[in-house]
Every structure is written in structure tokens, then in C-alpha cells.
Here is the input.
Amino acid sequence: MVEKNLDFRSDTVTWPTPEMREAAYKAKVGDDVMGDDPTVNELERIAAEITGKEAALFVTSGTMGNAVAVLAHTQRGDEIILEQKSHIFVNEVGGLAVMGQLMARTVPGELGWMKPEDIEKAIRVDNIHYPPTSLVCIENTHNSAGGIALTTKQMKADWDVAKKHKLAVHMDGARVFNAAIALGVDVKELAKYADTVQICLSKGLSAPVGSVVVGPADVIKRARKYRKMLGGGMRQAGIIAAPGVIAMTKMVDRLKDDHDNAKLLAEGLTKMGIKVVNQVQTNMVYIDYTTVGWKAGDWNKATKKIGWKSEGHGNGTRLCTHYGIEREDIKSFLDGLAKQLK
Ligand code: TLP
Here is the structure.
């Protein structure tokens, strides 16, 4: 039986499955900085294989994975192109500027997708006055656009323009398996349009900790060195990598349930008069509760009363579906909320 986790705040709140806890307990370990941890090595092998890449690196978090990948692709003083609401630009503490001494050039996306012509316009020409552009970062699924899955066609269009200008492409694929499931494609089909991909194990895939970065062996080698520099060289990390193996091999297909549950949730909220502001393609529902005359305090009070965690800010909030929330739970949430609205 799935342990209930009635928390809409994020999919980062997921708890490890019983099988993950058991795997952590029994994991064979070694010193990963020395390359000796068999479980980490296995996770990295699996991650590279599943995504069709040469090599992989286990890191502590999505933020660290994006940081080491961006650092591995760039030189101090380069400019990098990012979507203007991307997680790397908005939510990663300005690490690209602090650690990489990089300039950020943002491009507005259409539902999270930067159009190739807009990327091309943002690429610097060779001029004594300009910083060189070296990297394009794509986010898939795009979180703040509403958990939108960028298609292989969109990914390819951005890849083609980047490669025409000899730029590297990094994908913040924190939720790339959600994208693959929503689009009905193999994750390799998305990964092939990025040199490196950062994939979170501790979101919808439910592992307690960690991300993997996959890509060419030479880039991953540089990323490994940056991981060490940032203090992310872990010793008996097999304990936390073991749940990651289960995340990648056994937890992907169930993401479809999260997507179905998000759709059910969106339909129910819409019927109640609460506005759903995003296209619900994956596991995120962005809402505006002012359409029923509520403020953040009303939403927070009502959801708390019916036993759910959700944090309204301003006019609305994001609701994430994930492991620990099942179809029946969505139905009882909707029933409970309807009573609060009366
Ligand atoms: N996203 C978190 C918050 O930081 C906003 C969330 O609740 O969605 N890339 C993307 C697209 C992300 O959404 C996140 C986390 C990260 C990277 C960073 O991952 P962590 O939290 O593991 O550093």
C-alpha cells in the first residue's frame, strides 16, 4: 500500500518507497570519490544507458547538477542563453554568476520553449566588445510555464540553431521523464537534442536525494571535478544512490498516474469556479482562486482544514501531483474543498 502524502506543494516532497528504503539499507558501498562505490557506479551506468549518453555523474541535487554541467561547458566571462523564467536563471541563487562568472542572456519562451529565431538573435557575433556565447540551456518539462513538455521537434529546432553556431546545449531535465511520458516518446529522443541533461531522482521519481547529469565522457569528467570543488564528492554514497537506481528503473511508468491525477484535479477545480491557468500536460496545476473570491489565507485555511498541505501566495498557487497521492485522494480533496467553498 502506498503511504499517503497529501502535500501539493511540490513533487520534491515525495517519500522513498519501501523498496527504496530496503535498497538503501542493503546497498553495497565504497568510496565514491575514489570511484569505488559499486552502487553509485551502477546508477551512473544505468543513467547513461537509459538516456543514450556516454557517461553520467551522481550529484546531490538538481541545482548542483545544473551548476556542474553549466561550469563544464563554459569559461569565465562567457554568455549563456536561458529561457527567462527557467529554473537555472530564476531559482538557483545566481550560481551561474557567482561560480561561473557567466553572463545570463534571457529569451522569453512560448510555453517555456525558446523559438530558434529568438535564440539566434541572442547569440553574440564575434566582436571585440562582446562576451562569447557558449551555451544554450533548455528546461523540459518547463516548470513555471506549467510543467509543459517540450516536444522532440521543438528540442531539435533549438539544437539545430545552437549547433549551427557551435554552441553546447544543456537540458535542465529535472522532470524529463514526465516530458517523455506525456509525449509518449523514449527519453533518449529528448536527450539526443542536448549535450548534457540533468535529471532529478528526488521529484516524481521519489528517491530521497539526488540527481544525475548525463553527457559526453569528457564533459562529465570536467563536471566531476566541479562537483568535487563544490563539496559534492561523497564517500559511501551508495546508500543514497540505491534508491536512485529504483527511481530510474521502476518509477518512470507511474508518472502517468500523476499526470492523470493532475487532469482530474484541474477538471474538478474548474467545475468549482477556481481558474486553472496552465495547460495541464504533466503533474502541475497552476490555479487562481480569486475567481471564487478567495485570498491566499482562505485557500491555506481551507486546504489545511481538509488535511492537505498547500501554500497559496498572492492570487494563486501551484499544485503538484506525485507518488503518495492517488486518484481517490484527488476525489476526496475535491469533495472536501467544495464543502469549504459553500
Ligand atoms: N524545483 C523546485 C523549487 O526549487 C522551485 C520545485 O518545487 O519545483 N530544475 C527544475 C526545473 C526544478 O523545478 C528544480 C526544483 C530544480 C532544477 C532544482 O532541483 P533541486 O531542488 O534538487 O536542487
